[in-house]
């Protein structure tokens, strides 16, 4: 259910379709990130991908120290397995966070295999922006590890040009860097947005209501309390034709549930995790899709992964963001970008969309061309071919 997990899954399956032999090393899914009704084992084969899992005994929690212990226990548990697999591999790809990058960098250092580091999230910067990493000594250690991983990565990709500039300014040569953005699996959405629509609409039936949906990870960076405050304002202003549905889970879920109870709100529902194939239909039945970032300059470099799935739904999006995400929304006319975490901004945008004063005409066709999974795999193929040519 996390963005990184989806990125790894869809990339790996696409590589298999291209004729590559792919093995993934990962951990067992955390309960609040796992797919409902699914069981997992190791080893197993999923869509042609060999999956090996390590049993991480430390749970990732909101507590920063426990989170770091969990990540680095993954390094210890997976490095030996990674070195064994590397003997028969041509290229090793690690996907951030730093813990996975450390495994890839150690493999590069010991086995001399080409290591490509894929960075959807820049750490520790993101943890600092979320307010989860504050200790100066911890930040110093993480910075050292970050630079060490960059040094032992033969090639590096980021999701946005802003992220690429950030890493270049940290001393990494542009020759190592490229931009490989997120993507949309258009066929998955075409098949499922109607297939499960009737079932989803009956399950989440809110007659005469304008449905506002938040879909995905409910984390600290999203500051989901903003949406609770918006719904409180709507209810206080007797605007009772709105309902907010939270689809997903995350470390902030319990906190916002308590807020809803404390404010005695009747216009917020927590659905929890749902099967991935239901997501297109859920977006299809929604009237407005929302997401947010906390106000932070570093987050101006990001485009939330969920925006790509929101965009394909052809439903208006309201996002609290600046920088790359705001430009993305405006380029394809996907909705309204407001100031990050602005309650009044979200309120005004939601009312503008619901009363018809916002003219919604998304350029979904061009978006789909620009961000197809095929384009992304072609970018990776260029990296693979360059590496193969060098070795030859």
Description:
The protein is of the alpha/beta class. The chain has two domains: 3-183 and 372-391, 3-Layer(aba) Sandwich (Rossmann fold), CATH 3.40.50; 186-370, Glycogen Phosphorylase B (Rossmann fold). The protein is built from 16 helices and 13 strands. The chain has helices spanning 3-17, 64-86, 98-111, 125-129, 136-151, 161-168, 186-195, 197-203, 225-236, 253-263, 279-285, 306-312, 323-331, 343-354, 364-370, 373-391, and strands at 23-27, 44-46, 49-54, 91-95, 114-119, 155-158, 177-179, 210-215, 242-247, 268-272, 288-292, 317-320, 335-338. It has a six-stranded parallel sheet with strand order 10-9-8-11-12-13, with helices on both faces. The protein has a four-stranded parallel sheet with strand order 4-5-6-7, sandwiched between helices. A hairpin with a 2-residue loop joins strand 2 and strand 3 (49-54). The longest helix has 23 residues, at 64-86. The mean pLDDT is 91.
